[in-house]
Structures are given as C-alpha cells and as structure tokens.
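In this section we walk through a basic example: taking a raw amino acid sequence and producing a predicted 3D structure, encoded as discrete structure tokens. The instruction is simple. Fold the sequence below.
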Amino acid sequence: MLTQIYNGHILTPEGWVNQGSVTFSDGRIVEVTRSSNVIDKADRAIDAHGMNVVPGGIELHCHGGGGSDFMEGTEEAFLTAVRTHMRHGTTAIFPTLSSSTLPMMEAACETCDNLMREPGTPIMGLHLEGPYFNPRKAGAQMPEIIRLPDQQEFVHIIEDFECVRRWDAAPELPGALEFGRYITSKGVLASIGHTAAEYPEVKAAYDAGYTHATHFYNGMPGFHNVREFKHAGTVESIYLLDGMSVEVIADGIHVPLPILRLVHRMKGVERTALVTDALAVTDSDSDKAFDPRVIIEDGVCKLSDRSALAGSIATMDRLIRTMVMQAGIPMNDAVRMASETPARIMGIYDRKGSLQRGKDADILILDDNCELKAVYAMGNLIE
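The resulting token sequence is shown next.
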C-alpha cells in the first residue's frame, strides 16, 4: 500500500520543505517532494494540514514504561514498555538495564536477542547502564549491585549475546579502560556515567574508546574544590573533548532550562541527543516503580529519602516540547537531537533518523505547540 502524507511542513536533512509530501510503502520512504498534490497512485492520502512532519524519535536511554521495566527480562515487559513509548513518538529504541546481576543481564539479553530477530522491530539493541560504576556517584543505582569491571562477565555477555550496543561505566575504576577498549573493539558504544572522573581520567577514557556521556550533568561532578584547589570536573572535561557526544534528560527537571540551552550551544546539535531515562511508572496506572526505593514527586522519580533523582516519567514528545516551548531551542534542532543525532551516535543513520528516500518510514506529525498528532513506525500508524 502506497501512503502519502501531504500538505506538510516537512523536516529534511536540507531543511524545512513547506507544503510538501512524504510517500511510503512497505515500511520505507519512497519519496519526499516539494509538491503537495495528491498523487493518483496513492492508496491512502493523509492531509497534514500544514503541521510539522518530522522523523521519529530514537530513544537511547529508557528503563521502561506502562508499568513494565526492562530489568524484568521478559518478552511481555519489553513489549509493554516499548509500545508505551511508541505511542509518544519513539519509533526506535535501545532498552536500558540499570546496574544488574549477571542472571538479570543474561535474561534481558536473551529476550532482546529474540525480539530483534522479528521483522520491523523497533528494538535496535540493548543498553547496559552499569554495573561498573563509582559507588560515590551511584545515584539511584542499586548500591549492592555496583561492582568493578569483571572481564569474565563482560566478555561472556558480549560474546554470547548479539544485542548489546552500548555499555556505560565509570572510567576511573580499575579495569575500566581495558573494558572500554574491549567493548569498542566489538562495535559497542562505550559511555561515561555515574563517575567522579576529572580531566586526566576522562581524557584517558576517551583515548580508550569512550566517546559518549550518560545523562550529561547527572551522576557526574562539575567544577569543584579539592581542599583549597579547584579541579575541572567530568562536565568541563567532556566539553573540552570535541569528539565526545552527550545525552541530556530533557524533561526540564533533571537538567535546568539554562543548562539545556548551554549544552545546545556548546556541544551543538551534532553532539547532543535527547533521552527520557524513563522508568516503568511512565504512562502507567500504577505509581509503584520497579525499584521499591523510588517515589514519584514533583513530576519526576526520586529516591524516597530525596537524596537523588531516580529517572523520569518523560516521553519523547515531552522532550521535544520542553526543548522548544521552554528552553527556546528551534524545533528543527530539537527534532534532530531526538532523531538524527541518536541515529548517528548508534550507527543506524543509514536507515533511521531522517526523512529520506529508502529510509524506514518512521514519521511524527506535530503541531506548532509540539503536541503529537500522529506516529508512524515502519509505515504503520501507532494507536
């Protein structure tokens, strides 16, 4: 079936096309044109009414939704969480596990491997957030599970499962540089997170293959004193490394609006991705998180002792809306940070992340207030 979305304000890699059309068939984009005329051979024509037609969101960091957490490791939990986020504009996703035991990682990897074999799946691979973190920067990670890099463990996970595409660690830990070199040699993105690293350690990590920063500004120090002397923190160190990309939880709470603007200015669209870091309680009838220590308060997840934020209840459409309507970022930049940049970071830009002929028909329709009006994933309307 050939579908045409016409009369749209379409975001392309070359910029906006006004009163244009996107046609797609069998899950792929056939053509993006500057004409808004309905073509004769279209089986289905959808009038965008001049609204914004943009590429679907790509989620790099998401723990769950709809009451399910990826740490459960079951197919049901994976599918529930993925479908929840798809309704809100995520058309490709890297499910995320917080610091986990080896059996928990194995169960999630097996499920993810199986689901990734299904045609047209939105699941692009698994993201392991830990457990090789600095206990002093654990945040909401379960402290009893955090541990040092274990070569036998991480080699087993990488060698025996196909799904792992990203793994986060604190680079100052013993064995963390060797861990980074190993996973990057296997095509897995190494990301710095939950760390107390200062510039020498961040630079050493970058040289060892770490090229991304997990929830930038969260779980890492900025400029600080050690006794009477001032030190550059992880934040400033990452700014100084031009090749390092970052992700920000753009819910307007984890990172203040002025800092969202600063990241956009300093790292730019090409090096900044938007993520939800959403927990299972996102878009759920239940307020009970997978981790019993977590509560929902002030529109965000926290540890019950209020010592740390613990993830978000945000969705992809909220990220874009926050960046545009609150942080004052141009819509084209906000959308690119939710689609193109994540696709480039994860090496899937050949098929995702922009509206171009031959790419997957992952498409959002947003009004001028960034309210989501329609989601198409692989050409299928998500309802």
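Looking at the output, two observations stand out. The chain has a mean pLDDT of 94. Residues 64 and 279 are 5 Å apart (CA to CA). In the next section we compare this with other chains.
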